[in-house]
Amino acid sequence: MRGKRRAPRPPLPWRSPWTPVVCVAGVVAASALVAVSFLVKEVVLVVDGERRPVHAFAGTVEEVLAAAGVTMAYGDVVRPSAQEEVRDGATIEVRRARPLTLTLDGHTSKHLVTASNVGEALAELDITPAAGRLSAPPGDAVPLEGMELTVYTRRKVYVVAGTTRLTSRTTARTVRQVLRQKRVELRRGYHVDPPLDSFPEDGTVITIVPPRTTQIDPATARLDWRALAECESHGDPRAYNPDGPYYGMYQFSLPMWQAVGGMGLPSNWPEDEQTYRAQLLYQKVGGRWRGQWPNCGDRLFGRATVTALRR
């Protein structure tokens, strides 16, 4: 057995002529994997509030959006900007534009907003309808196809009737609604400026003017109305007598005041209006003044006449 030849050893793989090539290829592949891992960036993409992770080979925000299949339209907003370089772990937010037809206090305009709900849309347009009235709640979504929104803000409006001045903080759409809210009852023929169906802007002064459709007879106008007023109330248009009660320069009772077309209280109207209504009353009763002014009515006729009437 000593002279028997041993079988040759099998060749070792690392001694193959291809071994260096294989080793180099492995190193290159491993290096490539490491390099790729550094090139892939993990980004959080938020589109209209919906978040999703994105892995992308991208250098800019625009490239990330393209890789994620997100296209930008007119009016859309992206943060950071499209050309900004993306860092690993960054968050990219896209807000899509929505058409909004806004009617604000009667004035209609068209806008593009990126807000997802009504409250955010109003804030985006710098509109703060504090305690105002909206056609949709602030939390309602603004759909991508757009919506119509009506807003009435709370405005300060004034109502002037004679010497009465009322202040109203209102969201009313018309002058008529303002008067109803203030419980102002208009009598037939009264003129209102601006018109009842007009929109009351902030600062609007609503003036109520009573009608003067009945002419005063010249003989009635020549009577001494100043003397009558002096006797009844010392000429005070704001006078008040609780015994009746009676109001104003000529001490009207409310039924008599209303009978000649007066509105509200006589003492809330200026002197010329009270005098006009007193003259109407005189004509309405055919000159029989004692029913309205039993103690002072004779002053209408001057001193000489008063003396004669009292004899």
TrEMBL record:
Key word Plastid present: no
Resuscitation-promoting factor core lysozyme-like domain ranges (all copies): 221-296
InterPro entries reported in the protein's UniProt record: DUF348, Lysozyme-like_dom_sf, RPF
Molecular-function GO terms, alphabetical: hydrolase activity
Start and end residues of each DUF348 domain: 43-82, 101-129, 160-197
Domain of life: Bacteria
Keywords: Hydrolase, Membrane, Transmembrane, Transmembrane helix
TM region(s), chain numbering: 21-40
Protein family according to the UniProt entry: Belongs to the transglycosylase family. Rpf subfamily.
Name of the protein this chain belongs to: Uncharacterized protein YabE (DUF348 family)
